[in-house]
Specification:
Oligomer: single chain
Radius of gyration: 15 Å
Number of strands: 3
Helix content: 10-25%
Number of domains: 1
Number of helices: 1
Shape: globular
Structural class: alpha+beta
Largest sheet: 3 strands, antiparallel
Strand order of the largest sheet: 1-2-3
């Protein structure tokens, strides 16, 4: 994770996008207030995906604070 428990952004951690999943190439980068995501579906994917086109780069972004709030809400629900 790239946040300390107090909600302060750390410069020492990287974003982890989950377990390796061979159907997609996925990357994320961040600055101090925004996280940027890109991904695309490989041509030789195993599963079928209705809304993804092979080799089409998809882009999205979110505010770091929004993701932190979502994570904190999730942790409150499960604890």
């Amino acid at each position: 994770m790239f946040f300390y428990s107090e909600g302060v952004i750390s410069d020492y951690y990287r974003i982890v996008l989950g377990e390796t999943f061979d159907d997609f190439c996925k990357r994320a980068v961040r600055n101090n207030d925004t996280i940027y995501f890109t991904w695309f579906l490989y041509e030789d994917h195993f599963f079928e995906y209705k809304d993804n086109i092979e080799n089409k780069l998809v882009f999205s972004k979110c505010k770091s604070s929004d993701l932190l709030n979502l994570i904190n809400s999730f942790l409150e629900e499960i604890n």
